[in-house]
Write a structure and sequence with these properties.
Layout lengths: L2 E11 L10 E8 L2 E4 L3 E2 L5 E10 L6 E8 L6 E9 L9 E8 L5 E13 L9 H15 L36 H14 L44 H19 L4 E3 L6 H7 L4 H7 L15 E3 L2
Antiparallel strand pairs: 1-5, 1-9, 2-3, 2-4, 2-6, 6-7, 8-9, 10-11
């Protein structure tokens, strides 16, 4: 059954571009005879396209999405890399955020391209879910935060990318412990034995206590004593009023963050009922918060900003 494919072209990375041409790139998507292009991004090896596209899919069982990254050249545009995706593999997977490996004619990886995709069947009984628009907006915000760190191309098969994870994000930290060697312990025991064999004397009422000495246990290891300069070791204690004040400030910030207003921008084919269900809200509550904007709750216009919370 025919349908349409929603694609958001986010950004590219790890480009192997032609050094003799200007660093101007654009993306071309094609399904059958339907073709769309992004705007040309100039002067960057990490271009951010941030383009939303829609393509008609006459035969999702056999149609293929052709993805091409091109570099504008003086004698014609050069294909940096390309990839093919069968529409059938994503028809039932919902919204997908994925880095595609674009390869040259020699099958070498020449670039990676981030796309957000969602297939919509023409016979679906409900309109498009706002999850696609939310995922696309989040991907664009991550792209605009700053240039991504250089990464090697992934060799994994087509799969969904986790939203909160990045490649190589898990780090293992070791614990460093300071320990004295057996030779040091033996030398310390011999020094303590040579200094005297008398045990520690109890200080009487009129006797002055001398500087603390480190005692030697029966196992030969030294027991730490109080430093001679009178300073204390260990973490510094925070005064109780300051700790209480800090907790109150943190609690107030958390409360304000939870109570902050949340807005959603209406996309094509959205309905008030489905938007409310995606945010786990009642339709009546969403309508009451946007009563001034929504003259008719059955009519939504793309671009309207609805307050959800």
């Amino acid at each position: 059954m025919a349908g349409k494919l929603c694609v958001s072209v986010i950004e590219a990375r790890n480009l192997q571009a032609d050094d003799f041409a200007e660093k101007n790139f654009y993306v071309k998507l094609r399904v059958g005879s339907n073709e769309v292009k992004t705007d040309v991004v100039k002067g960057s090896l990490q271009p951010k396209f941030l383009k939303d596209c829609r393509l008609s899919v006459p035969l999702p069982e056999t149609d293929i999405l052709r993805i091409e990254l091109l570099q504008v050249g003086p004698r014609g545009d050069l294909v940096v890399g390309s990839d093919d995706l069968r529409i059938l593999t994503i028809t039932s997977r919902g919204t997908i955020v994925h880095w595609f490996q674009l390869r040259t004619a020699g099958r070498d990886v020449s670039a990676e391209l981030c796309l957000v995709l969602r297939y919509l069947s023409a016979g679906a009984h409900r309109p498009m879910s706002p999850t696609y628009a939310i995922a696309a907006r989040q991907a664009k915000e991550r792209a605009l935060e700053g240039p991504p760190a250089p990464q090697t191309p992934s060799t994994s098969a087509f799969r969904d990318l986790p939203s909160a994870a990045a490649p190589g994000g898990t780090s293992t930290s070791g614990r460093l412990t300071a320990a004295s060697s057996p030779a040091d312990q033996q030398g310390s025991s011999a020094t303590a034995a040579a200094a005297g064999t008398r045990g520690p004397m109890a200080a009487g009422p009129g006797m002055a206590r001398g500087p603390p000495r480190q005692q030697v246990s029966s196992t030969g290891s030294r027991r730490p004593g109080r430093p001679s300069d009178g300073s204390r070791s260990g973490p510094t204690q925070v005064p109780l009023p300051l700790a209480v004040l800090g907790g109150m400030v943190v609690g107030a910030l958390v409360y304000l963050w939870k109570k902050r207003p949340v807005y959603y921008e209406v996309q094509e084919d959205d309905t008030l009922c489905h938007i409310a269900s995606c945010f786990k809200k009642r339709v009546e509550d969403v309508y009451q918060k946007n009563k001034a904007l929504l003259k008719n709750p059955s009519r939504l216009y793309p671009g309207d900003r609805l307050r959800i919370r």
